[in-house]
Design brief:
This protein is of the alpha+beta class and 136 residues long. It has one domain: Roll (Thiol Ester Dehydrase, Chain A). The chain has three helices and five strands. Strands 1-3-4-5-2 form a five-stranded antiparallel beta sheet. The longest helix has 16 residues. It is elongated, with a radius of gyration of 15 Å.
Length: 136
């Protein structure tokens, strides 16, 4: 993610996020990705709620990848850095780094395809597409 535009968001690891070993349960990293993605869109002037309500578009995750390097632990304030990897009319790919104390704990991506309320693949709204392409 070097030299890319990214948005930083913060999340404090809750006790409920951890497993018996005291580290954040592996699936909860996806929740942190979602936080980063939602804040990234908000910084660009779009929210998922507006996209759903005004445009009738939902952006489901169709693929994900996470590489775990070190654990996040209870009560740590972690940072998620979010950027774009790819944007097309029918696809958005976000990239993430989850960090603590300037060390990367995990990194990965999520791929999204815009669909309408009936589940049919549709094009991204032109206004959103233009803004997203400027970020690349």
């Amino acid at each position: 993610m070097k030299d890319k535009k990214f948005v930083e968001s913060y999340y404090r690891v809750l006790y409920a996020d951890t497993d018996q070993a005291g580290v954040m349960y592996y699936a909860n990293y996806l929740k942190v990705f979602e936080l980063g993605r939602a804040e990234f869109m908000r910084v660009l002037g779009f929210t998922y709620k507006e996209l759903e309500e005004k445009e009738g578009i939902i952006l489901p995750v169709v693929e994900t990848y996470i590489k775990y390097k070190a654990p996040a632990r209870y009560d740590e304030l972690i940072t998620v850095k979010t950027t774009l990897k790819e944007v097309k009319s029918f696809k958005i790919v976000f990239e993430y780094q989850i960090c603590y104390n300037h060390s990367i704990l995990a990194y990965g991506f999520t791929k999204h395809v815009p669909v309408n309320k009936e589940g049919k693949i549709v094009r991204l709204p032109e206004a959103l597409l233009e803004v997203l392409k400027e970020v690349l």
